[in-house]
Amino acid sequence: MDIAIPHDVLSEAPDEESKVRKLGYIARGAAVFRVEKVLIYTYGKDVDWDEVEEMKLLLEYAATPPHLRKRVFKLDKRLALAGLLPPLKIPSHLAPRQPSIGDVVEGIVERWDGYYSLVYIGGRKYAKVPKPYPIGARLIVKIEAETDRPDIFRAIVLKNPPDYWGYKVEVRPFGQLAEGYDTIIYTGKEGRSICEGLPRPIGRTLVVFGGPKAGVDEIAKMEGVELKGLFLNFVPRQGTETVRTEEAIFAVLALLNYASVCSVGKPTAKS
After folding, report:
1. Treating both helix axes as pointing N-terminal to C-terminal, what angle do 16-32 and 245-261 enclose, rounded to 10 degrees?
2. Does residue 93 carry a pLDDT above 50?
3. Residue 98's CB: how many other CB atoms inside 10 A?
4. What sign does the CA torsion over 71, 72, 77, 83 have?
5. E-strand spans in the chain?
6. How far apart are CA 46 and CA 253, in angstroms?
7. Residue 270 pLDDT
8. For 188, how many CA atoms within 13 A lie in the half-sphere containing its CB?
9. Which of 1, 41, 73, 142 has the maximum number of C-beta atoms within 10 A of its C-beta?
10. How far is 200 from 221, CA to CA, in rounded Å?
11. Is a pLDDT exceeding 60 seen at residue 40?
12. Neighbour tally for 36: CB within 10 Å
């Protein structure tokens, strides 16, 4: 499942610290519910592209394994407050330790050794894999054996991780959000109440959230886009005037997770 948030989702945050913390909540919500991609969508003419790029950078930083961050990201003033981002603690973020046979870890190609690539996997350890991959390429490797050096292990490259490995980040115009998805779910106060029926996501699913300045229905009108999909209110009888995007992510994805993973039938009463 993927989610989409507007480019101005941080517009009501009073300072830079609040902006980073808000992005941290979004990153945590995405990780908790195994989101595969976070789309930042743009609309209107007043797009602050510097802020869009900063949002993308911070969300990518949060999703990157801590042992790789210094090698993936250069010194950047936009990351000065990245320490405020909460840890995701997903399988790819496990703290570096003495690698064991069978361990799966993400690393970055640091140099070549003949036909082999040496992949840094944290803790001053390296995985040696066949084939000279591009320097700087990020690979998911599985440790297969020790070598005659205590800091290098033989490994193979995995095409797909064995567990949830975090999300990717992409920027798209609002009008192109639906491309490539089987199910689109728009969320908003004006949508149909989920009391009428909780949807079960089918195929590749995108959940679109509104922002502080406009809901998805208002954005669609501004952009001249017809909402082709489900438009639902996941928080009927909300007690607050608005539901913040980071709050809505947890509320909506929790219900969709329940619908897709758990039984939605009523429990049978015991006699």
Report:
1. 0
2. yes
3. 9
4. negative
5. 2-6, 37-42, 104-113, 116-122, 125-130, 138-146, 152-158, 168-173, 183-193, 205-208, 230-233
6. 29
7. 45
8. 22
9. 41
10. 27
11. yes
12. 15
Instruction: Identify the sign of the CA torsion 260, 38, 175, 193.
Output: positive
Q: Are 54 and 10 in contact (CB under 8 A)?
A: no
Helix, strand or coil for residue 57? helix
Q: Concatenated DSSP letters for 86-132? A: PP---GGGPPP----TT-EEEEEEEEEETTEEEEEEETTEEEEEES-
- Distance of alpha carbon 177 from alpha carbon 180, whole angstroms: 8
DSSP H or E run through 243: none
Q: Dihedral, CA atoms, 202, 207, 208, 210, nearest 10 degrees?
A: 140
**Mean pLDDT over the full length of the chain:** 92
Tell whether the model's pLDDT for residue 1 goes beyond 60: yes
Which tokens go with 78?
């936009």
Amino acid found at 252: V
Any residues with CB less than 8 A from the CB of 11 and at least 6 apart, and which?
Answer: 211, 212, 213
Q: Cα(first)–Cα(last) distance of the chain, in Å?
A: 39
